[in-house]
Input
Amino acid sequence: MAWWRTYFDEGYLNEFSPLFTPASDRAQVARLLELLALPAGAKVLDLACGQGRHAQLLAASGCQVTGLDLSRPLLRVARQAGREAGIPTSTRRGSTGPALRYRHGDMRRLPTLWRGRFDAVVNLFTSFGFFDDPSDDARVIRGVARVLKRGGTLIWQGGSRDGIMARFVGTDSWETADGTTVRQDRSFDPLSGFLTIDSTWTRRREVERRSHRIRLYTADRLAALMEEAGLTVVAAYDGFGDAPVHRRSSEMLLVARKAG
Output
């Protein structure tokens, strides 16, 4: 079974808990809103939304947000957080008020009825490059182009192959909020482009091991895939900052537009 079918669960949330802070989430969404400059009630798709940490804040800012993810455990967390925040789950026809909806689904197979629906699509935290066949990655981008309105914007944020390789870290470790020690051992295959991460979780006398892998892209290759789908990259940043992406950027944020 493909790793991405089971990896994203409560264990995943715990493994990456040091990165999931309210302050960083707010800062990232503030940057997204600055770049998107959306009117009130704009329709946004958070593609591979996970536990909804960006989707919820985008909705709270006045957008009508749809979050799509394949992980039912993460969607349960997202829906509960949305209920606790009191964000409406639907709007009346013609309403421009905020709304937050979550949907279970595969990013390669966006609903046909979504054609031209969204003002913006966001794909964040390296939620891309999971599939064995690289043509599936191109299929995801074509789907994004299809569901965007004319003049709509895609924001893609994730790892940059150039920078990760320039400053490659083979082994890393940290402690999570519940006292679990996480060790990650990483390897890279330059032919497939896959970064493989073997995680070992240790808590008291219990040890659990998991693996996942992500195909890394350079900025130019990802821009070419977007261009083939009808999306033009108009800006490329060093992560969520305002400096341009460069060869040692470990992450990048691309802003792409669909022709009007």
